Amino acid sequence: MANSITLQQCLDKCVEQLQGSDVFFGHGTNNAVDEAYWLVLSALGISPQSTELNFGLRVDPADQEKVQTLLEKRITSAIPMAYLTGEAWFYGLPFTVTSDVLIPRSPIAELIAERFSPWLAYPPARVLDLCTGSGCIGIATALEFESALVTLSDISKEALLVAVKNVTRHQLQQRIKIIQSDLFKHLGNGEYDLILCNPPYVSDEEMSELPREYLQEPDLGLRAGADGLDIVRRVFAGAAKYMADGAVLIMEVGNSEQAVINAWPEVPFTWLEFEHGGHGVLLLTKEQLLAMSDST
Ligand SMILES: C[S@@+](CC[C@H](N)C(=O)[O-])C[C@H]1O[C@@H](n2cnc3c(N)ncnc32)[C@H](O)[C@@H]1O
User: Fold this and answer.
1) Where in the chain is the domain with CATH 3.40.50.150?
2) Which CATH number fits domain 87-294: 3.40.50.720, 3.40.50.150, 3.40.50.1820, 3.30.300.30?
3) What are the phi and psi torsion angles at 53 (to 5°)?
4) Pocket test for ligand 1, best of 106, 128, 220, 256 (most atoms within 8 A of CB)
5) Which of 8, 64, 93, 134 satisfies CB 3.0 to 4.6 Å to 55 for a cystine?
6) What is the pLDDT of residues 142-201, one digit of tens each?
7) Ligand 1 near 106 CB (within 6 A)
C-alpha cells in the first residue's frame, strides 16, 4: 500500500473483497456496496450521515491499512459491522449496540415513520415496547410521538443496560421508563394504547441453519422453541390485560408468519405491508386478543 488512492477506489476494492468472501449481509445492509460504505467510512472516521461525500478524497496508505484491518476482521470473524463499530442505524438514527442486543433491523421502523397510519384511532399516549433489546423500537416511537410515555421492557439485564445508553443518547429520560421483566410479569398494572413487540421467533430448526453472523447475536433474542412460537404464544395470552380499550398489538414474527397462521387458523390477523422490505408483522386489536383467549 505505497500510494494513496481515492475514496471511490477504496470503496471499490472493499466491495470486491466482500463479494469474494462468504460474509452474509442482513444486519443493517443487504448488499456488498452498502456494507463497504459503512465499513470504509467507519474505518476512516467519516460519519455515515455526511451528505456531501467527496469520492475523490485521497486515502493515504495508513488509512488504507485501517480499512483493510476492519475488512479482514469482518470477513474472518463473521462479526456483523454493527458489533464491530458499536453502532447500528434504525429509523434513520444511530443506536449504540453491543453483542448483548440484537442488531436493530425490524421493519417496524417504517410503520413508526408513517405514524402507524392508518392503524391507530388516536396518537398513543402510553406505549409498551416489549422485548426491547437496544430500545430502538420504543425510542423511535417516543421520538415520533412527542408526548407519548414509553415503557421499554426486556428479560435481559445486559440488554437493558444498552437500552439505557440509547435512552440517554436520544435524551428521552423524561418520557421513557425501563422495566426488567419476563414479558408481562413485572409490568404492574400499566394500560397501554399501543404494544409493540419484536420477540424471539426463530424455531430450533431455523436456528441450526442460520448464517454465522446470526450466531454472534444473543440466543435469547432469537431462539423460541420447536416451532418458534414459545414467546408469541405467551404474548397473545397476556397482552389484552395491559391494553386500553381501542389499543392494538403490533408484533413481528418474521419467517414464523406461516407457523402463526397454522397455529391460529381461526384468527383474522392483519398482516402489515412494507414499502422498504420486510414481512411477518401482524396487528391484533384488544378485542381480537380477548376473543382468542375466550376460545382457548
Ligand atoms: C428479537 S430481539 C428484539 C430486540 C429489539 N426489540 C429489536 O427489534 O431490535 C428479542 C428480545 O426479546 C428479549 N426476550 C427474550 N425472552 C424474553 C422474555 N421472556 N421476556 C422479555 N424479553 C424477552 C431478548 O432479550 C431480546 O432482547
Assistant:
1) 87-294
2) 3.40.50.150
3) -80, 135
4) 220
5) 8
6) 999 999 999 999 999 999 999 999 999 999 999 999 999 999 999 998 899 999 999 999
7) yes
Q: Is the CB of 203 under 6 A from ligand 1?
A: no
Bridge partners of residue 194, in order along the sequence: 127, 248
Asked if 55 contacts 6 with a C-beta cutoff of 8 angstroms, the reply is yes
pLDDT in tens, 219-272: 999 999 999 999 999 999 999 999 999 999 999 999 999 999 999 999 999 999
Residue whose C-alpha cell reads 413481528 in the numeric block: 252
- Report pTM: 0.95
CATH 1.10.8 range(s) for the chain read: 5-85
Confirm or reject: Cβ of 182 under 6 Å from ligand 1.
yes
How many whole angstroms from 208 Cα to the centroid of ligand 1? 19
Share of residues in the chain with pLDDT > 70 (%): 99
CA of 139 to the centre of ligand 1 (A): 15
Do the Cβ atoms of 229 and 259 come closer than 8 Å? yes
Residue 132 in contact with ligand 1 by CB distance below 6 A? yes
Topology, domain 5-85 = Helicase, Ruva Protein; domain 3 (1.10.8)
Cell, residue 95: 443506536
Residue 275 Cα to ligand 1 midpoint, Å, equals: 25
Q: What is the mean pLDDT of residues 100-126?
A: 97
- Verify whether ligand 1 is closer than 6 Å to residue 254 (CB atom): no
DSSP-derived secondary structure for 106-156: -THHHHHHTTTTTT-SS--SEEEEES-TTSHHHHHHHHHSTT-EEEEEES-
Mutate to test the pocket of ligand 1, among 96, 127, 152, 155 (most ligand atoms within 8 A of CB): 155
